[in-house]
Amino acid sequence: MARSDLEKAHLLLQKRRFSQALSILESGRNPEIYRESFDYFLTAGLACLYLGDTGNAGVYFQRARHIRMTDTTLLCAQAVLFLHRGETDRAIEYYVDALDYDPNNKLALRAMEFIRSHGSYEELCHAFDTGEIKKYYPPLGVNPDTIKRIVLSAFAGVVLALMIFNFGKFSNAARKLHLPAANARADLSELFLSVDEMGNAHKKDLSGGTYKYILSDAQIKKSYDMAMTYFQDYKENASLVEINRLLNSNASDAIKAKAEMISTYFKEPTFDSLSTFGDNISYADVAKEPDLYLGCSVAWSGRISNSVSEGKSFRCDLLVGYENMERVEGFVPLIFAESPQPPIDGERPIKVLGKIKVENGKIALEGKAVYQPVNREN
Q1: How many angstroms from the chain centroid is the CA of residue 202?
Q2: Which of 55, 25, 53 shows the shortest CA–CA distance to 41?
Q3: What is the pLDDT of residues 20-69, one digit of tens each?
Q4: Mean pLDDT of the chain
Q5: Distance CA 109, CA 106 (A)
Q6: What is the DSSP letter of 3?
Q7: Sites in the chain below the pLDDT cut of 50
Q8: Which of 53, 83, 267, 345 has fewest C-beta within 10 Å?
Q9: How remote is the C-alpha of 126 from its chain's centroid?
Q10: Computed over its alpha carbons, how large is the radius of gyration of the chain?
């Protein structure tokens, strides 16, 4: 049975994919049906809260409050917003209300104890900077992706153990699984934006600079969050697109520096990885906005022409999409620093793994690998 937009958003919220959850809610197919939905406004507010967009979170929570005032999750969420503003007295009022409806509410009790022992302005600022304040956000439950990774890891461990026991060949067994290890992605927790960085997401003075994209604070935070999420999903290209968007925008220097740091954890793609994780990019998309795709790796098919060898280097034009000699999507200069082995046969279709660059104002490819069928007939 197909899920509603709200059900999809709930699942994405549990998976900590806050930008995607908010996007579904704000651009749903039929938003009018949620006009009086408490759950809709609470879910959207929580997505904003976890993204650091406290302004819009407050708007959504207030809409939810007009529908239902006694929900303890909402009361604790609104109390945390007052903590963000340093208004501890108002926060306590909301926590007390939550305890009136649920005297054993653990979140409200822990938050009240935090305010009692660490409620000074300086200690609140420290809690924001370190991210400790998120302990008092309404919980989202167990991430189903985490459960899936644990199950897959356990299953993979059992299979590996059996293979090792039967054959004594650990490395060969591991290669047969074709599953990314649970810890294959780098830990980017140190690259989460601080409260100060989120509060100063864009440059205040734009004089003396050129910016292709002028983004709001919410758009900057969303783009950064997506760059992190795509990286964790093994989609380096999609992550790099968001990083390029930030680097060409009015985002603050601190956010740009952290965005560039994300890219230092990228792994070199292969034909297989681009296909497996759905991270390949079409020529048409790159042609629309080349600046967004600089440095991305693509696997494009076609034929070559105008090939020239200069020492160890090899240059040609790649006729993208012309492998069946029916339609050319575009002409792209293709450059190999060292001539690939075996040499490219201009009479046969070709598939190229390359990195996007700009040469003389035009899209070009820095060649990394080549695949051609062995048989001339193919």
Answers
A1: 20
A2: 25
A3: 888 888 775 555 667 788 999 999 999 999 988 888 888 889 989 888 88
A4: 82
A5: 5
A6: P
A7: 164, 167-183, 376-378
A8: 267
A9: 27
A10: 26
